[in-house]
Design a protein that fits this description.
Strand content: 35-45%
Distance between the termini: 11 Å
Strand order of the largest sheet: 1-2-3-6-4-5
Largest sheet: 6 strands, mixed
Number of helices: 2
Helix content: 25-40%
CATH architecture: 2-Layer Sandwich
CATH class: Alpha Beta
Structural class: alpha+beta
Number of strands: 6
C-alpha cells in the first residue's frame, strides 16, 4: 500500500496483481468508499462507471490509463475519497494527492 498526505487529506492506493491484469484500490480522506470504477485495456478507451453523486472517476481514470500504458494489461481501478462538507480547497488537496500517486504506478 502506498500512502500520501496527512490527516484527512491522506490517500492510499493498493495494487493487486492477477495473471492477466491489475486491480488498484484508491481510498482516503475521512471516508473511503466506492464512488466509481474505471476499466482500461490496451488499445481501447477507458470505461467509466460513476455512482450517482460521486466524481471519484476524475482521479480513478488517470490511474487506469497510466497503469494500462505502462503494463499493457487490463486494469481495474475502484474506490473513492471523501471529506464531509469539503471546501473547494480541500477537494483540490485530495485531487492533487491522488495525482501524486500516479508517480508510484
Amino acid at each position: 500500500m502506498i500512502t500520501l498526505g496527512r490527516g484527512k487529506y491522506k490517500v492510499f492506493m493498493e495494487k493487486y496483481e492477477l495473471d492477466d491484469g491489475l486491480i488498484y484500490i484508491l481510498g482516503g480522506g475521512e471516508k473511503s468508499h466506492i464512488g466509481g470504477i474505471v476499466t482500461c485495456e490496451p488499445g481501447k478507451k477507458p470505461q467509466v462507471i460513476k455512482f450517482k453523486g460521486h466524481y471519484d472517476y476524475i482521479v480513478l481514470k488517470p490511474i487506469a490509463e497510466e497503469a494500462c500504458k505502462k503494463y499493457k494489461k487490463r486494469i481495474v481501478v475502484v474506490g473513492g475519497v471523501h471529506i464531509d462538507d469539503a471546501t473547494k480547497d480541500e477537494i483540490d488537496i485530495l485531487v492533487n494527492n491522488c495525482k501524486e500517486l500516479l508517480k508510484c504506478i
